[in-house]
Amino acid sequence: MLVLLPLLTTLATALACMLAAGRPRLQLLLSWTGLSVLLVCAVALLLQVDNGGTLRVALGNWPAPFGIEFAADRLSASMVLVAALMGVATLGFQMSDADPASPDGGLYPLIHGLLAGACGAFLTADLFNLYVWFELTLICALGLMVRGAALRDLEATLKYFVLNVAGTLLLLAAVALVYATTGHLNFGALGLAARQTDAGMLLPFVALLLLALLIKAAAFPLYAWLPASYHVLPAPLLALFAALLTKVGAYALLRVLGDVFAGSPAVLYQALGWIAVLTMVSGVLGAAYHWDMRRILAFHIVSQIGYMLLGIALASPGGSAGAMFYMWHNMVVKGGLILIAAMVFRLTGHYDLRRIGGLYAARPWLAVLFLVTALAQVGIPPLSGFWGKLLIVRESFVQGQAVWGAVALGVGALTLYSMAKIWMEAFWKPHPDPDWQPTRARLAPAYAVTAILAALALGVGVYPEPFIAFANDAARTLGGAR
Amino acid sequence: MIWVFAVVMGIGVAAGVYLALSRDLFRMVVGLSVIGASLNLLVFASGRLDSAAPPIVVAGTQILTNAANPLPQALVLTAIVIGFALLCFSLVLVVRLMRAADSDDAHRLRAAEPPHDAGLKPPLEEV
Q1: Which of A12-21, A130-139, A143-152, A399-408 has the least mean pLDDT?
Q2: Smallest Cβ distance to B82: which of A135, A142, A155?
């Protein structure tokens, strides 16, 4: 039952918020209640799973390969917890006046719908069910994106829609073909059936599944939808999208390639490794061109996805653990960076780095927050990104994939370039207008949220041992151990 | 029967891809929906098309023999509903977009992007 609680909570909250349409205060109250319950459920689930092993629920009491099964192992439970945390961060930041989303147009129901879709995708143990949760996430994301209803919102939504629906259609086709070949949709049964099926027969269908999920995860060369659409979103929603959407795709890739179809032909993992390398490089180079903080950070989402894909492509417990650790780290840190960019926007009035400056003198604590979060993303010790990169790069070299490991290190340097650009332009250089004064703004909730996220990055970085041990435990239960 | 299915599916996907690659926004989303409809046939056929008998266990017996596979039928129903919702959303989106942009040409949708002829640096953002 505990497995279903995160799902039921988010769905019920979405429904309650929808019924309270037109009463923003009540919606806000319901949202906070729902998110608090979700957070408590996620913590309880994680503790339960960590102590007692994988929890399973088969709906309708149909036994496992026939009924739709939900299962929470360490990976699922940890992803639900980080998603809940980022939901809280989004709503908390929404309380400040830094680029908030307007509360009308179904904001709260859609946010909870998005969380429900993500939690569903994390918890389901059924391939078709995974497709349904992807669709729920997609439709809520579309609703959130189109709310602005200005020309650029509509345009961005169309681009997002077309490419993501193409991915969804491929996913549906892959699910149908996998079912036709193996006769199963349940993850456990699929894993068993895949080992008994001729690998060459199944390979094209698993590859199609991989392709569909790569579109969802915004991997090279299928990421065009992400930098074309994310930057029109208000900051709290951008942070939520960055934390959840592509990570659901990355999670599904880890689940499919590292767990259900673990032991697929090596060519798949090789291909994924090179895709990962190209994703990292093209994302970070795209970011280098831009001067709008939102666009820079959107391209960095793509680049960081590459590290997760690299961890998955290494196809070992060490690689999976690295990918997992990197996902947790990146959801928190990327969300934090986007929120800090929104605070910079509130104080200076612009996202474009060429129009702003002087914030180090005006708001030194904001500069410190940015520096901690940005260096965590780059991977400077002692911050969380360092350990994530260390796990993945070390595993690459251990497996003899020196090129992949070397590129991952090089991309770290280029990430530092982008972060240094924001630091120099927004914080260090004097403001282009000598008479500029920071706008007076209600930023206390924003400071609280970003400080908590930065503290998490620092805390995990200083004391990584339990997190790495947890990731290793989680990785060991994947694959053959199901 | 499966050959008819395969041919229809192939024609549907080909027509859908042709439409989806169009620069005309309306054709583009209709094309995606046509691909979706064809793939629904694929889902339906994934349970094999060897029987039309309903999957109901006759009273007094324990074993279901020679019946159609009910699972893909349930799956395809779900997929149809989702596809229909997405089609409705996309049609409204395209109508709004065509009114706002005063054009239905995908190449002219550059409001959220740096222009084609941007130089070494993108132009200054308004906000």
Answers
A1: A143-152
A2: A135
Q: Give the mean model confidence (pLDDT) for residues B84-105.
A: 92
Q: Looking at the partner chain, which of A149, A229, A351 has a beta carbon nearest the beta carbon of B127?
A: A351
Which residues of B lie closer than 8 Å to A, measured between beta carbons?
20, 25, 28-29, 32, 35-36, 39, 42-43, 45-48, 71-72, 75, 78-79, 82, 85-86, 89-90, 93-94, 96-97, 100-101, 109, 111-113, 121-122, 124-125, 127
Tens-place pLDDT, residues A123-151: 999 999 999 999 999 999 999 999 888 89
Give the one of B20, B94, B121 whose C-beta lies nearest to A291's C-beta.
B121
Instruction: Report how many helices (DSSP H) and strands (DSSP E) chain A contains, helices first.
Output: 19, 2
- For the segment A104-118, the average pLDDT, to the nearest whole number, is 92
CB A191 within 8 A of CB A261: yes
Cβ pair A355:B72 closer than 8 A: no
Cβ-Cβ contacts under 8 Å, B43 against chain A: 172, 175-176
For residue A352, the SS3 value is strand
> What distance in Å separates residue A139's CA from the closest CA in chain B?
8
| A178-205: pLDDT as tens digits | 999 998 999 999 988 988 888 888 999 9
Residues of chain A contacting residue B125, judged by C-beta atoms under 8 Å apart: 291-292, 350-352, 355
Instruction: Note the pLDDT tens digit of each residue in A255-273.
Output: 999 999 988 889 999 999 9
Rounded CA-CA distance B83/B41 in Å is 13
Residue A221, preceding peptide bond in cis (omega within 30° of 0): yes
Q: Say whether pLDDT at A480 is over 80.
A: no
Answer whether A68's CB lies under 8 Å from A59's CB: yes
Q: Give the closest of A132, A176, A291 to B42, CB-based.
A: A176
B71 interaction partners in chain A (CB closer than 8 Å): 179, 185
How far CA A86 is from CA of A33, A176, A259, A334, A339, in Å, comes to 15, 33, 26, 10, 11
Q: Considering only alpha carbons, which residue of chain B is nearest residue A138?
A: B86
Question: Using the 8-state DSSP alphabet, how is residue B105 labeled?
Answer: B
